[in-house]
Amino acid sequence: MPVRPGDGSTTPFAASSSASSTAVSVILVGGGKAQLSGPAAVRDLYTSPQFARRRARAETSGVPWFVVSGRWGLLDPDDVLAPYSFSFKEQSASYRRAWGRFVAEQLSVVSSVGRGDVVEICAGAGYAAALTAPIQYLGAQVVHRADVGASKPGDELR
């Protein structure tokens, strides 16, 4: 389980706030297969050029951002995580649906996403498909930006 450095917490996310407006309120960035060989902050763990571009977009946006992992769910960029092997696209449809609901619930806790908010998903189609309905159920709009950091299909499904 990922941990926050220095706080002894085993909670896989940290609190943040979001503003209600038509502008993007939160950005979700898909993790990736390429990872460092040892534990690192989530923002540094994933090493693909695609993740780097998506991370740069999120960091320069000025809004809260999180990484989504098919294995761990919603991760704060400062969480520390060991490298892992997991394929989201190889999971059952019921797993992907449950994962989407789980991530939306995590998101509602850490960012109070709701009516009037816009959640931008910078990840592949599999993540977007699993996340869209649960996030919309919270009342937020979803914008999918698969083309940010586009690479070969399936890279982000980790």
In short:
With 158 residues, the protein is an alpha/beta fold. It has helices at residues 42-45, 49-61, 93-111, 125-137, and strands spanning 26-30, 40-41, 65-69, 73-75, 80-81, 118-122, 141-144.
How would you characterize the overall build of this protein?
This protein has 158 residues and is α/β, with parallel strands linked by helices. The protein is 31% helix and 16% strand. It has helices at 42-45, 49-61, 93-111, 125-137, and strands at 26-30, 40-41, 65-69, 73-75, 80-81, 118-122, 141-144. Strands 4-3-1-6-7 form a 5-stranded mixed β-sheet, with helices on both faces. A two-stranded antiparallel sheet has the order 2-5. α3 (93-111) packs across α4 (125-137). The chain is globular, with a radius of gyration of 14 Å.
Low-pLDDT parts are 5-21, 150-158
N-to-C series of helices and strands = EEHHEEEHEHE
Strand content: 15-25%
Strand runs, count: 7
Shape: globular
Could you describe the largest sheet, including whether it forms a barrel? Answer: 5 strands, mixed
Strand order of the largest sheet: 4-3-1-6-7
Query: In DSSP terms, counting alpha (H) and pi (I) runs of 4 or more, how many helices?
Result: 4
**What is the CA–CA distance across the termini?**
15 Å
Q: Could you report the average pLDDT, rounded to the nearest whole number?
A: 85
Helix content: 25-40%
Radius of gyration from CA coordinates: 14 Å
SS content category? alpha/beta
Name the descriptors.
158 residues; alpha/beta; five-stranded mixed β-sheet; two-stranded antiparallel sheet; 7 strands; globular; disordered C terminus
